[in-house]
Amino acid sequence: MLNVQCSECKKVSELSLQTQPSPFENVVQVFLECPHCGSRIRNHFLSVELIQKQLELRHAVTQWNKHKTRLNFNRLAKERQAYAVLFDSEQEKYRSMLEALASFEKAVAEHGAES
Ligand SMILES: [Zn+2]
Asked: Which residues surround ligand 1, an ion (CB under 5 A)?
């Protein structure tokens, strides 16, 4: 459980991460839902690639905790940076895919599918 302040209603509550399937293969949507106003907080996509990167990052953290060497510090910094970059690019990718899908569905609803 996490103590989180809702960005909409500003109330703090104990929340646990929830997941729902996404329209994309090997990707789920992860979010916290505010029980007061129903807002979704920290909504993001979690792909297999991101899980893989998380494992590499966790490995680097473990190595650093075992041996506090300059090499392990550099590795950890590198993994953190790589994870942040991948996280941002994955969010951007799936968000724009979701928008494209929504506008396609809207066009189909308005004009019917072309065969
Ligand atoms: Zn709220």
From this structure: 6, 8-9, 34, 36-37, 39
